[in-house]
Design goal:
- About 0% of the residues are buried.
- This protein has one helix at about 10-30.
- The chain is about 45% helix and about 0% strand.
- The radius of gyration is 15 Å and the shape is elongated.
Amino acid sequence: MFFAVQEYKRTDRIGDQIKMEVADILTRKTRDPRIGFVTVTAV
């Protein structure tokens, strides 16, 4: 039986981490009441 394992490149993992950090900064650390829901789709 063969299981397909998707390997992530280092750049993909870093990009995902940057997206999470930017989203966290925008939602939790920014004190702007105009910012509500934030989605970071690409870096």
